[in-house]
Amino acid sequence: MQAARGTSLSDDTDRPAVPSPPRRARLRLLLAGIFAALYATDVVSKVLAVEHLTGRPDVEVVGDLLVLHLVRNPGAAFSTGTEYTVVLSCVAIVATGVVLWLARRVGSVLWAVALGVLLAGIVGNLTDRLLRSPGPLRGHVIDMFMLPSWPVFNVADICINVAAGLILLQAFRGIRIDGTREGEDA
Length: 186
Known about the structure:
Blueprint: H1 21-53, E1 59-62, E2 66-73, H2 85-103, H3 109-131, E3 141-146, H4 155-173
Antiparallel strand pairs: 1-2, 2-3
């Protein structure tokens, strides 16, 4: 057992608290795969929404519970900050860089999943802001899912919220991004 050689063990597995380079590489691949799958899902859903919902009435998917409703959103959540589209774009660019920087240290499966999901959400909405009308850094984000008493949202928004939940879970569990626990000596 590796604990006998002075390496601390995490509480839920028999693996070293600090992952080996091959394990860290696998975690980065997991992060990249999750990012790619969710980013593609977001892009495809937006392309389909624009293609099939433009100029059409709302489409009820599950009665009034889930409705497809096309919105071009220049702002943030709840369409707030519509006059700050360029600032939101710049924040998203910085956030993308931060997630990529943190990904170098990923040492836990749940952190790899959280960062992959978060990256997909950030880059999904950033893509709209960079490539959609009215122009680079000012593009409107495509939203299409509508629930009662809730703002219209998209797959990228779902990703950001799921990632926030996973990150909070890891924080409450005391698991650092490198896979070690709070209070452990690395």
